[in-house]
Fold these 3 entries.
Entry 1:
Amino acid sequence: MSDKAVVIKAQGGPEQLQLVEVDVGQPGPGEIRIRHAACGLNFIDVYQRNGTYALPLPATLGMEGAGVVEAVGEGVTHLKPGDRAAYASQPPGAYATARVMPAKCVLKLPDAISFETGAAMMLKGLTVQYLLRKTLPQGGLQSGDFVLFHAAAGGVGLIACQWARALGLQLIATAGSDEKCRLALENGATHAINYRTEDFAARVKDITSGRGVKVVYDSVGVDTWEGSLNCLAPFGLMASFGSASGAVPPVAIGTLAAKGSIYVTRPTLFTHIATHESTQAMGEDLFAMVASGQVKIHIDRRYALADVAQAHRDLEARQITGSAVLLP
Ligand SMILES: NC(=O)c1ccc[n+]([C@@H]2O[C@H](COP(=O)([O-])OP(=O)(O)OC[C@H]3O[C@@H](n4cnc5c(N)ncnc54)[C@H](OP(=O)(O)O)[C@@H]3O)[C@@H](O)[C@H]2O)c1
């Protein structure tokens, strides 16, 4: 069977994404070969395409997918040929009909979860898992606590709204349109702010009666950084986990004292899923949230793999809400 993958030879615009024929080959020790039923689309793919993150070239992009395991290499015991599976994983290479990849981050997909849902939720859902369960202020988060979550109508964001509701948190959402704000509220945010038309830091102070929030989860980056710091309660946590609007400039450490002895972290999913054991434990938590119906995965758009450049344009133009998948 002839296989195809989306390759970039140079980092740059969406026009760099080229669908080419590839020879997938056989899995080596610790690897599997998976045939994709669906591949995920994530903002990290944009950073890897445009050069925000350096990549050895040529490269096949894509960090998330779901499909059927075709072959397993020596030493792989948690998967076998014929298993339904899904993953979020390094290295990139998911924009493909099939691929060979390390097995450690590939999990068996429960029968109740479709391939499309699997491909739409692994990277984004595992991210929300480590943010809301493990990226916490001193003393943790209790039911009723306020958190601020930017870009809350996006792929990661809509999962976070629902998961926060399940935990009893008051999630203050920001989003770039009134329609997106409505979507965040429908998915469990208790308050929503259109940060293109309103001063979100002032609104957060109003909503919290001047106290501020215990955590800001900020994936927007440079555009929201300063305002986010101003939303924190004393000893609050700034979790900067992305930079869709551009990188945050270097921070003068004295700022953290001036803002109220605050904490700053810049986490990445890939530290959290560095081992099979941690990935499995986080995955089970995610699968349980989805199987129970507490978190629904919204697939806003489906694109043919060949139309991946359009998918990138739409993602960068803030046109997509929830998740999108690529169909090989
Ligand atoms: N560190 C980690 O472990 C980790 C893991 C997964 C994802 N992330 C990050 O989380 C964020 C969300 O990822 P996602 O894949 O679910 O994407 P997404 O949220 O569906 O899309 C990004 C959203 O960011 C907002 N945005 C604000 N300013 C923007 C700008 N100048 N250009 C483009 N978008 C802008 C837009 O929403 P509005 O129109 O509502 O502003 C846009 O829809 C990304 O920054 C990603 O890198 C980090």
Entry 2:
Amino acid sequence: MDATAESSLRKDAADVIVIGGGPAGLNGALMLARSRRSVLVVDSGSPRNAPAEGVHGLLGHDGTPPAELLRRGREEVVRYGGRVVDGEVVSARRDAPAGADPRFSVTLADGSQLTARRLLIATGLRDVLPDVPGLAEHWGRGVVHCPYCHGWEVRDEPIGVLASGPASVHHALLFRQLTDDLVYFVHGTDLDDQARAQFVARGIRVVDTPVAGVESDADTITGVRLTDGQLVPRRVLAVATRMLARTDGLEELGLPMEDLPDGSGRRFASGLAGETEVPGVWVAGNATDLFAQVGPSAAAGALAGARINADLAAAEAAAATTQHAASQPNADGPVAERQAS
Ligand SMILES: Cc1cc2nc3c(=O)[nH]c(=O)nc-3n(C[C@H](O)[C@H](O)[C@H](O)COP(=O)(O)OP(=O)(O)OC[C@H]3O[C@@H](n4cnc5c(N)ncnc54)[C@H](O)[C@@H]3O)c2cc1C
């Protein structure tokens, strides 16, 4: 736990509970805290880019270690009165609304019970790698998925694209921009004639023999072993992962999910500002936009935070109007009587 995080709670309430304290959740919380909303971020501390040395492609922060970026984000949320709790949400459910205003209960792994008027889900996603021996050990370093995140860092290296589905062809064309030495391992996927022709024209070598495993020397990949025993020397492997929104503990909310058409992932369905079909629940970042990098994830969190604040403001105005009208005597009430006497 870092200096900006609270120790676990027993019972607490907030206007908004943010589930997940990555770039999306923290930026949402920042907007809410600056709007003087009580906001509580619960974060289990395993952001997607944890294995990476630095965050790249983020203007003004290029190369910042992921943990350092989050540390600064937490500090900013806390500076405005927001709270950050290290913990894992194990259940979240809808409670009976207060009038028309939604209510939620959230339980943490340590048994703490939290309640809120709105939820922002920013749990990120889980990358599922192909089941190839030796691959997972190098995830985020020798095994990469994103040309924009680590492409520059692996430029001119002998790179292999380990195909995992239709997205891998596109992936290969992007990594070809970064190296002249690219090998495409078909690994049982479909590779049509048009793609093969493109690869020949772009000098990408195609290997059809299935992959048996990834070989390495200490921390460095040395090559890809094929099922016929041949070793194809490589230093870096690019893999398009299957991306699955992290849903653990959120099942009871009944949020609709959506599969990507090419089978490459599953996300929480949401509108443009992260609104879901469940009133009072918003979602932001990789949990709903599987391809979003840090900048777009943070931006989505900020937008959702602003919309949640607007929704609360509208609910408060409606409740206040009803209350105000009820407190006003009508024409047949006491005031009329007073005037008559
Ligand atoms: C290896 C790698 C390198 C990358 N490099 C870059 C890069 O250089 N530049 C870039 O722009 N993007 C990069 N990305 C993408 C980047 O990681 C994502 O865009 C970003 O993390 C999405 O932010 P998020 O807030 O949606 O999710 P995350 O950052 O994954 O944060 C989600 C948080 O929610 C928490 N959480 C999940 N479930 C629960 C629960 N039930 N209870 C409490 N907390 C929960 C998690 O512990 C986590 O801390 C990289 C990705 C990978 C895999």
Entry 3:
Amino acid sequence: MAEQTGIPDNLETPENDLESCVICGDALDGIQETSCQMCGGKFHQPWSQDSDVPQCGRIGSHEDALAIVFLCDDCYFGRRP
Ligand SMILES: [Zn+2]
Ligand SMILES: [Zn+2]
């Protein structure tokens, strides 16, 4: 008699709290991501050279704030109205 232990059926927990990239639409891992300064959308940003995360935005400089800002590809290339 095999004893049924209380293993839940839903081992694959839906990752509802993970957002998707506004550029490529793939899921973000919550770490290698950042949000766009202009549209506020989250996109992939690899923090290390050997990361396999795509870079879906660009680092730009904010002339007024004299700070480094992140822009998604759409905003960087002016594709967003
Ligand atoms: Zn992406
Ligand atoms: Zn943007």
